Amino acid sequence: MAAAAAQASRVVGGVPGHAMDGATPCGDWDLRTLVNHLILWTSYSAERRAHGESVAEDLMSKDFAAGPGFAEDYAAQIGRAVAAWSDPAAWERELGVMGSTTPAADVGAMLIVEMVLHGWDVARATGQEYACDDDVAALVLATVEAQGELFRQYQGFAAVYCCRKGMRTRRSWTAR
Question: Which domains, and CATH codes, for the chain?
Answer without folding.
Answer: 2-173 (1.20.120.450)
